Amino acid sequence: MNNISQNPQPVTKILIIGSGGREHAIGWKFSEDFKQKGQSVEIFFAPGNAGTAQVGTNVSLGSIEEMKNFAKENQIDLTFVGPEAELAEGIVDIFKAENLAVFGPHQAAAQLEASKAFAKDFMAKYGVKTAAYKNFQGSQLAKEYLQSQDFPIVVKASGLAAGKGVIICQNLEEAEQAIDEIMEDKTFGDAGNEVVIEEFLEGFEASILSFFNGKKIVPFISAKDHKKIGEGETGLNTGGMGVIAPNPLFTDEHFKMFEEQIMEPTKCGLIKEGLEFAGVIFFGLMITTKGVYLLEYNLRMGDPETQTTLPLLETDLYEAVIKSINGEEFDLTFKNQHACCVVMVSGGYPGNYEKGYEIRGLEKVTCPNFIAGAKLENDQVVTSGGRVINVVGLGDSLEDARAIAYENIKKINFDFEYYRTDIGVI
Ligand code: AMP
Ligand code: GLY
């Protein structure tokens, strides 16, 4: 790993890849930490959004090659990669070949997110607790296998499908239809060249982010995502309508099971396979009466898990990331508080949504808030994405955090706004 000396220059320069609320929150945390240290930082976002423009400078860099050249020419001290697409394309390998400090998995490890079939084989090989499964590259064998299975069952497109390639099937007919949609109709494109057929697990979900330094995995506090568009977890799946942290259902006992049966075997497997890296591992968990299971790995920060957990992180983010890149020991400590992040979206999301409407009242908001999909147009902040803004209440109890989030969200208005009113209701 590169040996990067800490802060050789008076101004630290950071490049953040991505354009969502996640990237705004990462930039905000760096900026707050540097303010607290009394040190200067210059943050660039590629491409960023109207919110990141308040924290640093948005730059338009079309390709990974351009990002690399920008980092070299501007003597960037650290590049933090937000989205999975660039990771799967190998941005980290390209940056490291030029001795640039970059936080994220190399392409080989990014396969743990980009290929569910690869991830499941890895979990099975290293004894990471997960649902029983089988991978298929052809629809005929997949359908034959279904004949002998119990239902419900889960059919997954193996590749990256923006969180949409998972179909829960109640009976044989639905499962055969799912195979046809994924493998024959190619609803998710090449992501459906291979499928994972998996045991259905019943329970509740939790997400745990972590940083890996190539030797040790250091976990964040747990979080709970609210994925459906409608109140009471109804309707279509979204990228995430809100998150609370810590997850009130995830006990210390669950945490211990996660560490022993998922986190440690993952670390050992990565090292044995020669897949060590400095970056994020995001564990998507299902907690059942039989224990804690790993549903999936993401090799990037979650959105909006990042917006929810970073405001609670006490540790200096830049120091933790640089230590991780250098393979050094570091801790992550969190405030003994609760966070509740509510996502305001634009009408129509997660389908085709409205855009181009002015967002009013942002100046009245008194808690952390992160722009997910808005741009500057003639000095106005206007909606430009499905998920528009994340409002994060912080409090000594979950109830306080919820109350603060909802009190502030009422101050923000734009045409066709929508948000769930039950984020954090357990
Ligand atoms: P994934 O992308 O694999 O995390 O799956 C997306 C969502 O599908 C998860 O957050 C769960 O809600 C659901 N899911 C995935 N795998 C299973 C499973 N084996 N049993 C039940 N639900 C699942
Ligand atoms: N909120 C889930 C994700 O980022 O994938």
Automatic annotation (TrEMBL):
GO biological process: 'de novo' IMP biosynthetic process; purine nucleobase biosynthetic process
Enzyme Commission number: 6.3.4.13
Record's keyword terms, sorted: ATP-binding, Ligase, Nucleotide-binding, Purine biosynthesis
Annotated pathway: Purine metabolism; IMP biosynthesis via de novo pathway; N(1)-(5-phospho-D-ribosyl)glycinamide from 5-phospho-alpha-D-ribose 1-diphosphate: step 2/2
Molecular function via GO: ATP binding; metal ion binding; phosphoribosylamine-glycine ligase activity
Residues annotated as domain ATP-grasp: 120-326
Domain of life the protein comes from: Bacteria
Catalytic function, reaction form: 5-phospho-beta-D-ribosylamine + glycine + ATP = N(1)-(5-phospho-beta-D-ribosyl)glycinamide + ADP + phosphate + H(+)
Cited NCBIfam families: purD
Family label: Belongs to the GARS family.
PANTHER family tied to this protein: PHOSPHORIBOSYLAMINE--GLYCINE LIGASE (PTHR43472), PHOSPHORIBOSYLAMINE--GLYCINE LIGASE, CHLOROPLASTIC (PTHR43472:SF1)
Entry-linked HAMAP family: GARS
Protein name: Phosphoribosylamine--glycine ligase
Organism whose genome encodes this protein: Faecalibacter macacae
Lineage: Bacteria, Pseudomonadati, Bacteroidota, Flavobacteriia, Flavobacteriales
Gene this chain is encoded by: purD
